[in-house]
Amino acid sequence: MRSAVVVFPASNCDRDAQTALKQLTGKDPRMVWHGDSELPAVDLVVLPGGFSYGDYLRSGAMASQSAIMRAVKAHAEKGGMVLGICNGFQVLTESHLLPGALMRNADLKFVCRPVTMTVEETQSAFTRKYDNGQRVVFPVAHGDGNYFADDATLDRLEGENRVVFRYVEGDNPNGSARNIAGILNETRNVLGLMPHPERVVDPLLGGTDGVALFRSLIEALT
Amino acid sequence: MKARVFVTLKNGVLDPQGKAIGHALNGLGFGTVGEVRQGKVIDIELAETDEARARASLKDMCEKLLANTVIEKYEIELR
Questions:
Q1: Range(s) of the domain holding residue A85
Q2: pLDDT, tens digit, for every residue of B20-49?
Q3: The domain that contains A167 carries what CATH number?
Q4: Is this model's pTM higher than 0.90 or not?
Q5: Size of interface A-B (CB pairs under 8 A)
Q6: Among residues A34, A86, A94, A142, which one is catalytic?
Q7: CA-CA 20 to 30 A from A44: which of A15, A69, A177, B14?
């Protein structure tokens, strides 16, 4: 699997994503600057966490207008895989590659802690190595993770099994609608999630629940 | 031409910041304060003299960048 990580000004999880991808795929991902207008030939593009453009205007809003995002959209439209983590998820909603929006956390606090989620859907290239209903613990670190969409959109996401990760009842860190933590696009090649799978790929860092997500992609794309 | 764009959360979208501001105002003794909603003001200078063209252009800016119409609405004021 060939991968690329997009680096925006003030991305801060780009190196985490790079390290995880290198460790699990055995290949260095290509690091792509936001001002570039072309992507290298890759199977997977990761939009990393961080505070791109200082979260000016809205989280992800400025990044969604960057030159590289036109190439990322074209990649997604051709069926290429895109994984948006945290700020990357915000960039995906702002780019309309995923529906809905990520609003300020309901309690207005930046939240930085491990959260427990269930894997709600394993029929996807991102989650095929998990068990249906499996509980996983990923860390979150965000101030704007409160997923919002109108009821019709939420019903549709659930009806099409596009809610892939859900916070377990009582452990929703941000007030997101229907405890949603991560969703797929209609064609199931774009995943956005607030928690950080790339930070739980090594026992040394406190967990390995994120490994199966990358292994799923490797299996699907190799 | 100068324009002022107001971006606010749509009705029905929870506004925790507005709520917190309301609580703080109540705490300061402003007992008459009810619901508070907050938003953004964006001032824009436009090299444009035709009002209709300016409005059309500003609407386009709001739809493309200034507002996230999933959660926000906008109003345009020309001055």
A1: 3-221
A2: 999 999 999 999 999 999 999 999 999 999
A3: 3.40.50.880
A4: yes
A5: 31
A6: A86
A7: A177
